[in-house]
From TrEMBL:
InterPro entries: Tetraspanin/Peripherin. It comes from the Eukaryota. The chain crosses the membrane at residues 12-37, 69-90, 102-126, 152-176. It is found in: Membrane. The keyword Transmembrane applies. This is Uncharacterized protein. The keyword Transmembrane helix applies. One of its GO terms (cellular component) is membrane. Signal peptide: none annotated. The lineage of its organism: Eukaryota, Fungi, Dikarya, Basidiomycota, Agaricomycotina. It is a multi-pass membrane protein. Keywords: Membrane, Transmembrane, Transmembrane helix.
């Protein structure tokens, strides 16, 4: 039986859409990360510094050279997410349980990491401690100057985003459970798939036909000859 979300949309369609968007966005981020890494390695950062002031250029170049490992790590992570999202996309099309399971596991890990990041943002929003970064022995600090209304807006936005991500994880898990139930159903009743969402039994599910009642034959009936 097909499961749904938002009252009427099949969870399979949700996985198809979410995996496609995840694949597109993560591929874009991974591509930008690898391009930035190439520019760092070939000393061509000037190609993306046209609209920066001289001080901003120096700060940007110092930061990306010092934290080049973060650029590499981020590019690898987004590449991995793009790959798993592609598995989920293909899995939703061909109804492959293992591909959808891998995509579901990745979304759970991503949700946990995002929740940790959201908690850190909320802490930084309500904390009055300055955030400092040291580059080449020079410390730069930024202070939290948000008003009460801005803090509430940030909090509401983070909570809404967290709930949406949780709902997406639930939808993907629900579709994976649907594929699991279908696999168990086919195994229990020895069914073969004959089409998208349809199955054909190797043996009938109804009780075998009972033997004919002997006294129902004409020769055993009395009728008008009684």
């Amino acid at each position: 039986m097909s499961r749904h979300f938002c009252f009427c949309i099949p969870v399979r369609a949700g996985v198809f859409l979410f995996s496609l968007l995840s694949f597109a966005l993560s591929t874009l981020c991974a591509g930008l990360g690898w391009i930035l890494f190439h520019l760092i390695e070939t000393n061509q950062l000037s190609k993306i510094e046209d609209k920066m002031t001289q001080s901003d250029k120096e700060a940007f170049e110092n930061a990306v050279h010092k934290y080049k490992w973060a650029v590499i790590l981020g590019s690898i992570i987004f590449t991995f997410v793009a790959l798993i999202s592609f598995f989920g996309f293909v899995g939703s099309i061909v109804r492959n349980r293992r591909m959808v399971k891998a995509y579901s596991f990745m979304t759970v890990i991503s949700f946990l990491l995002t929740s940790f990041a959201a908690g850190f943002v909320l802490y930084a929003t309500y904390s009055h401690k300055p955030f400092c970064v040291t580059i080449d022995g020079k410390e730069t600090c930024t202070n939290n100057n948000l008003s009460v209304g801005e803090k509430i807006g940030v909090t509401v936005g983070i909570v809404i985003q967290w709930l949406i991500q949780l709902y997406i994880v639930t939808i993907i898990r629900r579709y994976y459970r649907q594929l699991e139930d279908e696999r168990e159903y086919r195994h229990d009743f020895r069914l073969n798939p004959t089409g998208a969402g349809t199955y054909e039994a190797k043996e009938g599910l109804l009780a075998p036909q009972a033997a004919a009642y002997p006294y129902a034959d004409a020769q055993h009936s009395f009728g008008s000859h009684a």
